[in-house]
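As noted in the main text, all predictions were made from sequence alone. Below is one such record, for GNAT family N-acetyltransferase.
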Amino acid sequence: MKLIVESSKPARAAAAYIRMSVFVLERGIAFRDEFDQKDSDNMVYAALFDGKRPAATCRFEAYNDHTLKVGRVATLKEARGHGFGRKVVSALEDKAKQMGFTHSLIHSEMDAIKFYQRLNYEITSDVFYEDGVPCVVVEKDL
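Prediction:
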């Protein structure tokens, strides 16, 4: 297992592979909604490799001067149940702490709330729709 957290073409390519598999092909989210203008070589991605194959990913963006926004968290179907999602989110949080961020927020799909609660996130919003999917904001201090 290898875990990278960086702004690089390999990290972006691994993230794109996983997100295409999970969000576009498995979940049916439109390509144009999944891949946005924020996806660039400057975006910080966490990517976990199981052997040579990308297995889990998420991305980092600054919400404000002290808050990290974690997004596009995904694990390949065949790699679920091994803690890979937790590992990429935790790695991204660690990177954010090194950069001086003290708070984290995530737009969580309703079926992922328990996953984030296990990572000590708390629901802080009412339900809203993002790309046609019901979500809530979850937050925690780092």
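The chain has a mean pLDDT of 94. The first strand starts at residue 2 and ends at 6. These features were considered when defining construct boundaries for the mutagenesis experiments described in Section 2.9.
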